[in-house]
Amino acid sequence: MAIKYYKLHCEICGYTNITDGSDCKLVECKRSKIQKDIPKCDSSTGEASKSTFISLPKKYKCPKCGRLVSPRKIQEPELENKAKNNYDKDFNTGSKGGFERL
Q: Can you tell me the distance from the alpha carbon of 5 to that of 20, in angstroms, rounded to the nearest whole number?
């Protein structure tokens, strides 16, 4: 069974962490469900239909600044970092898709 990795990134303070959830203690913030539609009264039976709700995704407090951070599911961290480094290398050298001098 593969381990699920999550990336936490706070845009406010710049905190970034890749974790499987076991190495850091995160504080989950409670979020209320949102009502999707209102209950309607059925004229033939006289009963009201139940309303449906949408659950919101989980959010956690940033350990540095305390604002809400949403986790993003990622693949193996080594693969992601390797792909990012290869992209930066190609972009900076201009070897693939860069402008060439005429």
A: 5
In this structure, the chain runs to a length of 102
Spatial contact of 94 and 85, defined as CB atoms under 8 Å apart = no
Domain range annotation of the chain: 5-93
| DSSP 8-class letter at 81 | H
| Six token digits for residue 16 | 């970034």
23-80 confidence digits (pLDDT tens) = 777 888 888 999 998 888 888 888 888 888 999 988 989 888 889 998 888 877 565 5
Largest CA distance in the chain: 79
Instruction: Say which residues have a Cβ less than 8 Å from residue 60's Cβ, sequence separation at least 6.
Output: 8, 26, 27, 28, 29, 68, 69, 70, 71
In sequence order, the β-bridge partners of residue 17 are: 8
